[in-house]
Amino acid sequence: MTTTTRRRPRTRLRFGFVDSFLWAVRIGAVAIIGVGLIGSIADTLSGEGISGGAWRDLVITGLSQGSMYGLIALGYSMVYGVLGFINFAHGEVFTAGAIVGFFVADALAEAGMWTDLPILAISIVMLTSITTATLVAVLVERIAYKPLRGAPRLIPLITSIGMSFFLQYAIRGLFGSNIKSYPQRPTALQGSVDLFGVPIGKAQLAVIVVAAVSMVSLYLFINRTKTGRAMRAVAEDKEIAALMGINVNRTIVTTFAVGGAMAGVAGTLWGLLFRQVFFFTGFLPGVKAFTAAVLGGIGNIVGAYLGGISLGLFESVGPNLILAPLGVPAVSQLKDVVAFTALVLVLIFKPTGLFGERLAVEDRA
Amino acid sequence: MTAVASRSSRAAVRVDRRGVITGLGAGGVAVFLGMIGMLVAFDGRNVIDPILSLGYAVLIGVFVVAGHRAAAREELEGVEFEPYGPYDVVSGAVAGIVGGAVVGGFILLIEAFDVREVFTNVSPALVDFLTLDSGLAVGLIAMALGGAVFGAVGAATHLLPARVKDSAISAVIWIFIIGFIELVIVDIVESFKFADFFEDFVYGDRRGLTVPAALLVGAGVFLLTWRFRGRVVAFRARIQVMPEEQRRKTGVVIALVLIALGAILPAVLGTFVNELLTIVGLFLLMGLGLNIVVGLAGILDLGYVAFFAVGAYTTAVLTSPLSPAFSPELTWFAALPFVIVFAAMAGVLVGTPVLRMRGDYLAIVTLGFGEIARILFLSDWFKGIFGGAQGIIQIPSVEIGPLTIKGTDPQQVFYLLLFFVVIVAYVSWRLQDSRIGRAWIAMREDEQVAEAMGVNTVTAKLLAFVIGAIMASFGGAIFAAKIGSIFPNSFQFLVSIIVLVLIIVGGMGSIPGVAVGAFVLVGVLGGPTSPGLLREFAEFKLLIYGTLLVYMMLKRPEGLLPSARRTRELHQEEYLQDAWIDAQEKEGHPEEDG
Amino acid sequence: MSVNFKRLRGLVALVLALALVAAACGDDDSGDEDALGTVVVEEGDAIQIRTLQAISGAVESLGTDQNRGTQLAVQDYIAGNPDSKIARFGVDLGTFEDDLCSADGGTSGAQTIASQADVLGVIGTTCSSAGVPASQILSEAGMVLISGSNTAPNLTSDLEGNALDAWQPGYYRTAHNDLFQGRAVAEFAFNELGVRQAAAIHDGSPYADGLATAFANAFEDLGGTMTLYTAVNVGDADMVPVLTDIANSGPELVYFPIFQPEGDFIIQQAQDVEGLEDTIFFSADGLQGVEFLSIPETAGMYFSGPDLRFGDNTGFTGVNYTELVANYTDQFGEAPPQVFHAHTYDATMLLLDAIENVGVLDGGDLRVGRQALRDYLYAVTDFPGVTGSLSCDEFGDCGAQAIAIVHHLDPNDPAATIQNVVFSAAGR
Fold it and tell me: Does B501 touch chain A (CB under 8 A)?
């Protein structure tokens, strides 16, 4: 009886420190963001800062970069939802698709098809990219993850780190370390269109649209087809799903394959938009994509995609919007700082991610 | 009669499928190694000087392993085991021929089509290598024959009695090892008068052993293993069954011996090895710190390099006369308390927001913090304090009274490191069995239960972060004094990953494991921005890293030198099975006829 | 337990004994005339020289290219001077050490070389960040270090008679000092192009930051204004934010001495950003490669870098640059992928020439004094090099300090760009 009264002050102190720290962070973040925002708006209106048109362009590049993060994030999110670990090698799946796509694109450009029949050429490249990425994703699963199905979480994570190194340097050994450039965008994708009075770059628009369409197809696939239902069931609870007669192994392979396919789409889009690819291209986008998946809510497909878009926006617009008015020099260097700080802040404000997480029964806290 | 017939027909079937599949796999691996350029690159270094280059050794190795696996059969408890016979050797040979055929097909393909535009390492040099520089016909025949022979050899290893097999394998491995550590051995003997003679006798011109030296090493190791193998196995078994107290005493004695060795060896060893040891020591220091965070407290921290950077930059700012903002020019030891304080602050800063996050979120958030730290140190924003991209140079040596530990003398740095490693290792060791250590382990197992038992998880987690941060910052401080100049690109994400990998591969939660991990990974393969022992492997360092990692996780996830608890955790299924079988036997269950 | 202790004690005793023996059996130093010691190359042995270049990693082509330059120089020297002491003893380059383009890599490589007591000189490093610790370690070991590609100012001097922070005695370089390159670019921009407002972008590497700073300072000294000094990170792909910042500050010229692929992204995405239509884009030799120059958007760019019009400059053995490239291509199977092989060729020639002149034949042995070697190199004047006439100043800057600025007009003909020099500055 006396112990309970003695316990309380310790409890209060304990929660006191952490909670006050977090509240300090919340208030500080809001204050900084607020000040930065007001400063930016003031600068833009007064003409000193970045013009409205330039903001619009930043938003659009943020959206297109974010769409690619979103597509890659889908793979991370799905694998995490089903198997409960971060698949570090997924960034390399993206790279593999992008690089193999490059060789096809290069060949098509030399044959003239890239400029004459751009839609067909890009479709062929995208098909190649998707096939390669899917193949790599499935192979990795078979070789490295399947044997580790029941192991504690850390082990497949380390294995995936190992596979990530292996794939990066295998790609480097096979294809060389020089930078490969996709051919210049076909004229159909050059310049900009006016969409509701807003000029948007055609290539950026194409990226955003294709990514969105892929996302919608994936959503329909997961929610309307039998295989999709099986994937959701396995993601929910593997044992019960197995008892229900679902082939868990095959479903897991399908999950990896679908994630890989999305990464393959992202690979071609990257090639179209950014053009330069080499063995290290996918590493940082991979890390950012997982960040995006967490940001949006892990295991939640739509959340991952929207998380990717949000991250792209934060990265693109954040430094100039928040930091520049505060007098920070060389804000573009701090892009990644903004991205990761956004992650921390989102998790402090909303610990389950922006759109809520969906985890397997085994993994829920 | 029927038993024999059935065995041979089963054997025939086995030869067909298993050999072929293994052969295809081996061929694929050999082709892959050729395509990434490893075979040609390794061809530049010899294992046995005039006759065997590393490239060919790897190729042969692929076939031998293929043959071995083609013929391997799992020994199952309670099932009668068929002894190996000549069919197995045939099986191995089949695997070898199939593999050789695959490689042969590959050679024909690349002769016919020029794929160099896509696969940059598929060069004429590769064709020369694969055809043994003797033209297409001879090369193809050699590949098939060689495959068969070496595949058979691999399979034949099953036929050898265990003692012979172990001795032979040890002999081969040590021939490789002595060849690889040439730089170390040369460095060691350099201070002796007979150095030149020794070098000429043992090592050939192109980095391998000479034939007589190879024979000597091979025979010597063979005999040694033959003689002492039994003793080693018995010794290990004895350690296993030793009661806890005695085992601990033995551990202490071994530790003391190692420390004594560490104190004496640098004088004997040359600069190259000392330099290598200092890098290993730095990673060992960081490994011990991360071992507490990940191994004991179960917090997956992927941004550990941030604390290393904090230690390095604090030292640099406070000791260098060229420190941009203000240069108090403290001595290294005077700066050390500040290093500890700032590291602790960093630990609290990183730890508090992640306190309530689930394990994998925590991983990515700490990764983010690591990157944030690196970018901030690199940024133009803080250039006035941290020097930006130009870093901070002219960091002075460490002075202890009259003694100076010059950063450019690896021997002295090694002693400084040894001092800190001993302290940190001792602290880690004591923490493991202390109240906070047990609190960490409880927290790692199940946080909610730990809370219910009265463990203050907030304090425990923060303490883990802080202690880990302080240990890393020691490493950073020594690093800064050693190199004398710090640039932000020494603090990449890769460093965090390598420290994590090192403790996992070495054995998480066990201090000797961390040491082994540091030696094997950083010493042999090399760190992210420092070369290791195998300099020829630099191109393929991370590839080998990745493969090693995957292999270790699949075969031996508890690491090379694990703590007993960890092994039990990871192999629970097997222990339970063994226990079940034992129980069955005790009950006298009749066994099935094999 | 007692058995164990006995064994262990025996082990410790054995180790101690070994240590004593080792200490007793150490080599003794011979009495020395030279302040830093004398290296004796015995009859039948070879002269020991080492290289410390970036032969793995992102800038591997820079290091490999330079090693080839060294190899060619050794061959040419021996072929051209068959009666020299060098030819008589031969040169052993040993294992090519790797500087990993980092301070720790440079440290390890330098330590490895420093531990080999008979090494006279080292050709390296590739990256200036490796050069800082390496020059210190090798300097303390008494060895000479000559670089064909370090350009960071702080390794030598500010070109006005003051040593800078990382200067070490015994360090030399045949590449230019970046202060000079920055000044040349600023002069060209200010005087020739008439630019009064400029911006600069670096990528967080010491080289890019140093060069961009050198340009910024020189430009402001001339009277121009730096509208923005900013940076990107290696690994960034989306350059629209940084380009927006630049466009917003309104410069007439942007100097971004960075590497691929960040440079590629910048020039490609600049087309999509409003306000940069008339801006001049200016980079340095890091991007002056065929892959970058073939990108259509690069038309109209300027590049600064070492002046590669070596023309009829003949090296020490009479080989001119065209012949050098032909030999290179013959021997190594490809055209030089980078531009510093010629500087390294000259650096190696300098070292060989110094050894030849400082070395004294004593019976059948060659004695080379380390301090004498250094003194000789500091006194080098008008040494014929493929890259120009080399004279070493008191801080180790030996390079011809010849900077050329080229104007890139046709992405379909990258080779022509190197010839299209619109401005050159020579420090000597």
Answer: yes
